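Saturday, quiet lab. Running sequence design on the structure tokens for the scaffold JK sent over.
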């Protein structure tokens, strides 16, 4: 089964007529033999309606693509509800923060613990689900900030609600903040071991070592439980409307950074999409997450670039040289299967097969075929990400051929 995604940006009317828009979507859906289109609209309602109607005409399932804790239009008027760093640095000013987002995305995250955030999201989701006869809801941005948000953002959230909730869970917020600082210092030492080749760990092993040594595992559990609880409530809200549920998840090597635990999230969904992004120049993509972690360590810990690169490699678990995409996807998929155990939720690996010159990503047919060969060996399903409007015909044709 082929899933693909459609992001309808605020400038869509200046880029497409409605006729061309419909034609591009219809042609690409047909070429890929796609059965599911996940739709996120920030333009006027007519564009979303046109996309849904196109799906219905072709027998394709239209899904609501819903961003939960960031880039949610209902939350944007409430910046006081952003995640708070332990050191007081504003979320938009963290060291190493990626600043390449377009006009419709800022990746500034709102606190998952906040009941006020939950109330706003619940109301907004109800309105969004009622707009069309959706087949399901695909939840995105269902996490805490990642390395791409900057080094200080990795420790969020320390707002009043989170401090209280941590206390109720037996955690002391000041102790957690101090342990996080020590763990970053320890990561510097680990990077030297990696540079000199005295140790070789998987990313999960490296992260587990730091978390265990500094007593942070209960805090990680607290964050993962918070995300799972909130998404469980939203998934229940969708199911009561008769809708299926999909989840957008960080690749396993990165998931612990953002409070996502596959073993607790997978059972909430009909399908999950691990973002096995080894080319994407944006959040969730290994290149950007690693680069932001490197830059943050340079700024926050005064490391030189070589040492910071080694530190990022130890934590993320992959250097640019290991972004041999086929083997990397195979490795991440193995981690997914181990994490979810016997859970029968369908795994739909997500891969970036777009042409977006302004952010430096280009996909030719040969690259697409190579990536798809690896994914095909792992799963009968695929999510061709992340915007059907940017998937070239040459790539759509390869997808359709390999997933006929």
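Result came back. Writing it out in full:
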């Amino acid at each position: 089964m082929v899933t693909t995604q459609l992001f309808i940006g605020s400038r869509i009317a200046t880029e497409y007529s409605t006729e061309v828009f419909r034609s591009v979507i219809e042609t690409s859906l047909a070429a890929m033999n796609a059965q599911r289109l996940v739709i996120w609209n920030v333009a006027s309602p007519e564009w979303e309606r046109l996309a849904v109607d196109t799906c219905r005409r072709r027998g394709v399932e239209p899904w609501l693509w819903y961003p939960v804790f960031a880039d949610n239009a209902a939350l944007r008027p409430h910046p006081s509800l952003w995640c708070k760093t332990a050191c007081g640095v504003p979320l938009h000013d963290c060291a190493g923060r990626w600043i390449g987002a377009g006009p419709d995305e800022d990746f500034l995250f709102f606190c998952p613990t906040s009941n006020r955030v939950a109330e706003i999201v619940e109301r907004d989701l109800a309105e969004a689900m009622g707009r069309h006869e959706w087949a399901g809801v695909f939840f995105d941005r269902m996490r805490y900030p990642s390395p791409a948000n900057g080094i200080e953002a990795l420790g969020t959230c320390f707002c009043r609600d989170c401090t209280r909730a941590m206390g109720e869970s037996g955690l002391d917020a000041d102790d957690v903040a101090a342990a996080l600082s020590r763990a970053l210092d320890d990561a510097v030492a680990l990077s030297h071991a990696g540079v000199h080749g005295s140790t070789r760990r998987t990313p999960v092993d490296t992260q587990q070592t730091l978390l265990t040594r500094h007593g942070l595992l209960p805090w990680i559990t607290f964050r993962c439980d918070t995300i799972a609880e909130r998404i469980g409530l939203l998934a229940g809200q969708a199911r009561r409307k008769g809708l299926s549920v999909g989840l957008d998840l960080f690749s396993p090597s990165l998931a612990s950074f953002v409070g996502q635990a596959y073993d607790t999230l997978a059972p909430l969904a009909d399908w999950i999409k691990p973002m096995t992004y080894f080319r994407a120049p944006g959040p969730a993509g290994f290149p950007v997450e690693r680069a932001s972690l490197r830059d943050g360590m340079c700024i926050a810990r005064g490391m030189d670039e070589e040492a910071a690169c080694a530190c990022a490699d130890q934590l993320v678990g992959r250097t640019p040289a290991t972004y041999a995409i086929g083997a990397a996807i195979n490795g991440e998929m193995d981690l997914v299967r181990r994490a979810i155990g016997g859970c029968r939720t369908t795994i739909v690996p997500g891969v970036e097969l777009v042409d977006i010159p302004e952010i430096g990503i280009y996909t030719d047919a040969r690259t697409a075929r190579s990536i798809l060969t690896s994914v095909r060996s792992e799963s009968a399903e695929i999510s061709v990400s992340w915007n059907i409007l940017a998937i070239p015909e040459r790539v759509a044709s390869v997808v359709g051929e390999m997933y006929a």
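Notes for JK: The CA atoms of residues 94 and 150 lie 5 Å apart. DSSP finds 15 helices and nine strands in the chain. Ask whether to fix the surface positions before the next round.
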